[in-house]
Amino acid sequence: MRILLTGAGGQLGQDLVAAFQHQNEARQTGKRSDILALSREQLDVSSRDRVYSVCHDYEPDVIIHPAAWTKVDECESNPEKAYAINACGTKYFSDMAKTLGAYMLYVSTDYVFDGRKPSPYVEWDTPNPLSVYGKSKLAGEQAMASVPFHAIIRTSWVAGYGGANMVKTVMKLLAERESLQFVEDQIGSPTFTADLADKILEITSARLTGTFHVTNSGVTSWYEFASEIATLLGYGKEKVLPVKTADLFPPRPAPRPENSVLDNMALRIEGLRLLPDWRESLAGLVHRLRD
After folding, report:
1. Annotated catalytic sites, by residue?
2. At 188, is the secondary structure helix, strand, or coil?
3. Could you tell me which of 50, 83, 87, 34 has the C-alpha nearest to residue 65?
4. SS3 assignment, position 157
5. What pLDDT is attached to residue 61?
6. Beta-carbon neighbour count of residue 234 at 10 Å?
7. Of the candidates 75, 50, 51, 82, which has an alpha carbon nearest to the alpha carbon of residue 65?
8. Long-range contacts formed by 97-103: CB under 8 A, 24+ apart
């Protein structure tokens, strides 16, 4: 089996490469997969010619596409780039998946929802993105409709050992400042890339189709999340102060969903194990980053 992975240099991409390598090591030689893992520098996903050329040359059986432009505020000021990467880039891969008869998995986001629902979002809720980033990622989801065998993975608040993320930011700020402020009125379910990568591998290996919400278990706010990191590092929760989104100054260019909680209903229906509680995985990540 030949697997084409985009975004291999990102935090999720790095853990996906590791997950597939571990799977290959556990298998007999004849059952191992060939993986072409391409970083942003190696493949510009917004270039139709490059995407088509790579897919024609490699002829993958599986395309896993987490590559995206995820800088939410920058997307707001440069929508053309956001759509070129997140929407058109996904369409180019979906075109090739259809042509080659390949299975394709696309990684999407909680930002496809407006965050106004009072309860967690299930896979069948109607998207209503507020930001350019969310709209461009939803356009990527819509491009997947042409692929006969595909899966869409929506996730949220992603953090991992590689790449930039909120865990690393909070750890850095805790070491530099007397106190920090984080919003208490935005809630979600943190997702850790090592856990997410294993679930993507499981879904891909089983060739499951449809839309899946995949996050770590449990719900928190950004204030509680940062407070937990402070506690794990021995600072104490009092170093992190709560603030309302409306009180942030200057306000961020892109609106954030107040409620980013994704109910993993489709995983439960399929009988798949849910990811561990976010506190458990956060503790493991902080331990790795601290060492």
Report:
1. 133
2. strand
3. 87
4. coil
5. 97
6. 7
7. 51
8. 97/63, 97/147, 97/150, 98/146, 98/147, 98/148, 99/55, 100/55, 100/59, 100/60, 101/148, 102/60, 102/61, 102/62, 102/63, 102/149, 103/61, 103/62, 103/63, 103/149, 103/150, 103/151, 103/204, 103/207
Residue the block writes with tokens 């929760």: 237
Do 151 and 5 meet the contact criterion of CB atoms below 8 Å apart? no
Residue 157: phi and psi, rounded to 5, are: 50, 55
What the block records as the tokens of 271 is 């009988």
Helix or strand run (H / E) with residue 152: strand 150-155
Within 10 angstroms of residue 275's Cβ, the number of other Cβ atoms is 25
Please write the tens of the pLDDT for every residue from 136-163: 999 999 999 999 999 999 999 999 999 8
Number of other CB atoms surrounding residue 209 within 10 Å: 16
Average pLDDT, the chain: 96
Q: Which residues contact 250 (CB under 8 A, 6 or more apart)?
A: none
E strand spans, 157-227: 158-159, 180-183, 187-188, 191-192, 210-213, 216-217, 220-221
Of all helices (H) and strands (E), which one includes residue 175? helix 166-176
- Segments of the chain with pLDDT less than 50: none
pLDDT at 33: 85
0.85 cut: is pTM over it? yes
Instruction: Check whether the bond before 250 is cis (ω within 30° of 0).
Output: yes
Residue 143's closest CA among 92, 72, 78? 92
> Which tokens hold the place of 242?
């709560």
